[in-house]
Write a structure and sequence with these properties.
The structure is a single chain. With about 950 residues, this protein is α/β, with parallel strands linked by helices. The chain folds into 6 domains: about 100 residues, SH3 type barrels; about 190 residues, Tandem AAA-ATPase domain (Rossmann fold, 3-Layer(aba) Sandwich); about 80 residues, no CATH class; about 250 residues, 3-Layer(aba) Sandwich (Rossmann fold); about 80 residues, Dihydrodipicolinate Reductase, domain 2; about 170 residues, no CATH class. The protein contains 33 helices and 31 strands. β12, α6 and β13 form a beta-alpha-beta unit. The two termini are about 25 Å apart. The model has no long low-confidence stretch (mean pLDDT about 90).
Length: about 950
């Protein structure tokens, strides 16, 4: 039975958030308690009151109601009231604090305070806290932070580029992979790493307005990065407050035209500090020594104030060498200061590239080539040994020596650090394209409308007027045929429905120019043909598009057909399908490649069948033949195709702007296109830089992919997150196909669980499942839900104390142990990447009653499995009975933990110095021979090493959790 006296301080076991309570009345067996912090009153029955007396021990710091604090040295009790004697925490003078004057706002959240005041957590909560600290430590010291969590296929060249650029200080690079090789994914991976590692916190993405939603979706779906789209309307919201709109968000997507066309917006964007600026479609930036476009000038101004810069373009430099120089100039204006000097330097590097080509081949190196390599390496002679074996007949030694030399050449290569360009010729793994042209007769019902359209636009013809001939259903509707829908007369509809029904095991992706066409086709298939199909167009919300894509992706119960408007050729990949129908054709070859690229991407497991229905004797037949026979745009990628089209566009479009024209009208254009494309392809092949390709493709991509696969296969993440869901009360429902539906409940420990909204979410820990289902979130160690759980548990009190029984008859009953978990942690800024060397580091001690540390002899996992839970009332009684002994053991434990802390700090300091010094020495050596090494990178490394050593040395030690274990024979 508890003893109560007026003025005593107690805490409610069931309502600990009320703060410290004061006994204000004792009437027989009834107790009245006031909780001043909240103004609440409670009455209890003395024998069953869920209350724990608040007591402090020697060494504790206790706050008074007057605002000063005492360090307790001695304790006395008078009339049931504790009196604490000790020293003033600030002045060091003798001080006395009576229990009634303790600060009632005092928070008892330290592990030992909660243990001794009856706020005892369950054993599984304690285990969760331990596992959280352990997993957080392992995660932050992993080299794959920012790479393993991207919802992408594990493509080696993408992983190589992402790791190479993403782990740099303020990366400034040009990503110039060909279409279909994943520049957007590479950029996203770089951004992801920069943000998670702390190297960046503010990112601006500039792009054509038509691509802003594609990027918004990609960044959110693949990388869980919540960017905001800024347009003039959004910026205008801040006119009254005079606030810079670009300082109101950390991650922003913005049309480049918004800044290029407004000096005010340009100045505002430049005034906001950016860690990283990303520019997509960078080949549109026009520059020459005599004329600079507004877009180029805007990026140039931002490049000058931003630490990092990523430029994305698929256009080869061979198609505009001066514009290629202009882009490099944005990356490093000091190095690429003069075009003529750049051309001269590039000529020198061609000789190096030729040497690399010879090293990659099976042929021996000539004496002259070996002499050139010796001359290139004269500074340090690092490849001297490898050169001795370069022509050896021992295959293994020959391969190893050439690999060493190539790696050295890559390090020294001029644009190798600032430019990454992979081509389909250098990266394998693409499917075969099978082209199936379908010639159809032009319906009579379309003829009047087409003649009307031709007559109407004959004198003032524009590209869109010609393009309309490729979608005759719109001309038909514009003429007015509400009583007889176009799909009832268009032979493409019947052909396509029969094709789909005869191949029920295949999924078909159908792409057409307009959303209305897609909607009409879906209705026709559903009502007349009974074909399950979904639509995908720009008028749908992101959630609606996700649902449509998910229905199409479902292999068991999903629809057979997905009908997309032109937006369907942007931003989504449907690699699980291999049947593509181009219901109409775009004029622009790049747009055609984007359409085909939804299926023809690296990682596609099947050959692609491309069906092109066209009308005989019309513009659609002419365009098909020009694309197919002129530039081979269907069977293969055609990066130079748009250049050919721009050269021929006016004359070609004039020629096909007629009805029932002779097939011969397009022949001269096909022949000319063939000549131009072959010459351009020849220039591109001659301009191939094998050294650049080797650097872009890398040699470590496969190893990175294998390491990520190992992480994917490790079930520890699944076990950890299920443990979190169970402890915090998150509802989990199996959905099949390795999917899980999470929903919040009314009884969750935290009202706001990381990333989980009221509607819930569908998740999967399986990469392949998440790749097939746009509506499924891929949960990895990088995911913000996992990272949020780390932070939520670390900052909370959950599991920071527990009491358990150890059933073990080999030990005397009543024997007790105290398990302590300390955390060594530094307050270093995230930008210094302290987690690489000293993340929050758990230190576990297991002390017997004599203070001996048994942790190394008794492993946590096996020990924890033997323990049994104790009900809260019994646990509180045991902890109270052993309070003095536990307090003494905590004091001994702190001395042991401090010694371990010193060793941890020394190891972390040594690792930081050695790791950063090695990279620093490499960069300083390379700078002597490779001007692409920037001073800012070297300076940043020097500063990082100096500051990290200082912060690591100041790391603190805190008691994170305590568990009392008592031996029981029951």
């Amino acid at each position: 039975m508890n003893y109560f006296a007026l003025g005593q301080r107690w805490i409610s076991d069931s309502e600990s958030d009320l703060g410290l309570g004061t006994v204000v009345a004792v009437q027989g067996r009834r107790i009245s308690m006031l909780f001043p912090a909240t103004g609440e009153n409670r009455e209890y029955v003395a024998d069953t009151a869920p209350l724990t007396r608040v007591t402090f021990n020697q060494g504790d710091k206790v706050d008074s109601a007057e605002g000063w604090s005492i360090i307790v040295e001695d304790i006395e009790e008078a009339d049931g009231i504790f009196i604490y004697f000790g020293r003033d925490a600030d002045s060091g003078e003798d001080a006395t604090l009576i229990e009634t004057r303790i600060n009632h706002h005092l928070k008892l959240n330290k592990p030992q305070d909660r243990l001794f005041t009856g706020q005892i957590d369950r054993n599984d909560w304690y285990d969760l806290r331990y596992q959280t600290r352990r997993h957080q430590f392992a995660y932050q010291t992993n080299d794959l932070v920012g790479l393993n969590g991207a919802r992408t296929s594990l493509i080696p060249h993408q992983l190589h580029i992402a790791k190479e650029a993403g782990q740099r200080v303020a990366p400034r690079v040009l990503l110039a992979d060909e279409v279909g090789l994943g520049k957007t994914i590479e950029a996203g991976m770089i951004i992801h790493q920069q943000l998670l590692s702390g190297r960046a916190s503010r990112v601006l993405i500039l792009l054509p307005e038509s691509l802003q939603y594609q990027w918004l979706v990609e960044m959110l779906r693949r990388f869980n990065l919540p960017f905001s789209i800024f347009d003039e309307e959004r910026c205008a919201e801040y006119v009254e407050s005079a606030e810079n709109p670009f300082e109101t968000e950390q991650l922003i997507i913005c049309p480049l035209s918004l800044l290029a066309n407004s000096e005010q917006r340009q100045q505002q964007a430049c005034a906001a500090s950016w860690d990283l600026v990303v520019v997509d479609e960078a080949h549109h930036l026009k520059w020459s020594p005599d004329e600079v476009s507004p877009e180029y000038r805007t990026v140039e101004l931002l490049a000058a104030v931003s630490q990092g810069l990523l430029l994305l373009t698929a256009t080869p430099d061979q198609l505009g060498h001066e514009s290629h120089f202009a882009r490099l100039r944005l990356l490093d204006k000091e190095r690429f200061y003069d075009y003529e000097a750049f051309v001269a330097a590039e000529y020198q590097f061609k000789a190096t590239a030729l040497l690399a080509k010879q090293l990659v081949s099976a042929d021996d190196l000539s004496a002259d080539q070996k002499s050139q390599l010796v001359e290139l390496n004269a500074e340090d002679g690092s490849i001297a040994d490898a050169l001795q074996l370069v022509n050896t007949t021992d295959a293994e030694q020959r391969r190893a020596s050439r690999k060493t030399i190539i790696a050295d050449l890559i390090d020294r290569h001029g644009t190798g650090r600032v430019l990454f360009r992979n081509t389909r010729a250098s990266v394998k793994g693409f499917p075969q394209r099978n082209v199936h042209p379908i010639a159809l007769d032009y319906p009579d019902e379309y003829l009047p409308g087409t003649r009307w359209w031709l007559d109407r636009h004959q004198d003032n013809r524009r590209v869109q007027d010609v393009a309309a001939l490729l979608t005759p259903e719109f001309i038909y509707e514009a003429e007015g045929h509400e009583d007889h829908a176009w799909w009832l007369v268009d032979p493409r509809v019947d052909w396509l429905s029969e094709k789909i029904k005869s191949n029920k095991g295949q999924k078909y992706l159908v792409i057409c120019a307009k959303a209305s066409t897609a909607l009409t086709l879906e209705k026709a298939f559903r009502t007349l043909q009974g074909i399950n199909s979904a639509v995908f167009h720009e008028g749908m919300s992101i959630i609606e598009r996700d649902r449509a894509a998910a229905w199409f992706a479902d292999q068991d119960e999903g629809c057979q057909v997905l009908i997309c408007s032109e937006i369907g050729s942007e931003g989504r990949n449907f690699q699980f399908a291999s049947q593509l129908v181009l219901f109409d054709l775009p004029l622009n070859p790049d747009l055609l490649e984007q359409r085909i690229g939804r299926l023809d991407r690296i990682g596609q497991q099947n050959d692609i069948d491309i069906y092109i229905p066209y009308f005989n004797g019309t513009a659609s037949e002419s365009i098909f033949k020009w694309l197919h026979q002129g530039i081979n745009a269907f069977s293969d990628t055609c990066p130079a195709g748009v250049t050919v089209f721009e050269q021929q566009a006016d004359a070609l479009l004039d020629a096909i702007f007629q009805l029932d024209h002779d097939d011969e009208v397009v022949v001269p254009f096909i022949e000319q296109a063939n000549t131009i494309i072959n010459e351009l392809n020849k220039q591109m092949e001659e301009g191939r830089d094998i050294l650049l390709e080797l650097n872009s493709k890398g040699t470590d991509g496969e190893a990175i992919a294998e390491a990520i696969l190992e992480m994917d296969d490790d079930t520890s993440l699944i076990a950890f997150m299920f443990q979190v869901f169970d402890v915090y009360g998150v509802q989990q429902d199996e959905k099949g196909n390795q999917c899980l539906v999470l929903k919040p409940t009314e009884h969750m420990l935290e009202p706001h669980f990381p990333e989980l909204n009221e509607e819930g979410m569908t998740i999967s820990f399986d990469r392949d499942t998440a790749l097939m289902r746009d509506d499924v979130r891929f949960i990895s160690w990088d995911h913000p839900m996992v990272q949020g759980c780390f932070e939520m548990i670390a900052r909370s009190e959950v599991g920071n104390n527990a009491v358990s029984f150890l059933p073990n008859k080999a030990l005397p009953e009543g024997t007790y142990f105290v398990e302590l978990m300390y955390v060594v942690e530094t307050s270093a800024p995230k930008a210094l990447q302290p987690g690489r060397f000293l993340p929050p580091t758990p230190v576990r001690l297991l002390l017997d009653k004599s203070g001996n540390n048994l942790a190394e002899k008794v492993a946590y996992e096996s020990f924890n499995k033997q323990l049994k839970p104790v009900n809260k009332q019994m646990a509180s009684q045991v902890a109270t009975a052993l309070q003095k002994e536990i307090h003494q053991l905590i004091g001994k434990g702190e001395l042991i933990a401090k010694a371990q802390k010193d060793a941890i700090i020394k190891a972390a300091t040594d690792n930081a110095v050695n790791d950063i010094s090695a990279e620093l020495n490499r960069m300083q050596s390379l700078k002597k021979i490779n001007p692409s090494i920037r001073d800012i990178e070297i300076t940043a490394l020097e500063q990082q090493k100096e500051e990290l050593v200082q912060y690591i040395g100041q790391a603190g030690l805190q008691l994170d959790a305590v568990r009392l274990i008592v031996v029981s024979h029951q």
